[in-house]
Amino acid sequence: MVGMSGAILQGVPATTTDTDIWVDLPERQYVRLLNLVVKQGGTPMARTMYALSDGSLVNFIFSMTGLKKFAEEYAQSRELLWNGFKIRVLPLERIYKSKHDSAREKDIAHLPLLMRVIRGHRFAGTTGGPRKTQQRKTK
Amino acid sequence: MKTSLKDWRQVHRKLKKMRGLSEEERIQLARSLAATPDERWQMHENFLHSHGLFSHWERKAYGFKW
Question: Is the pLDDT of residue A138 over 60?
Answer without folding.
Answer: no
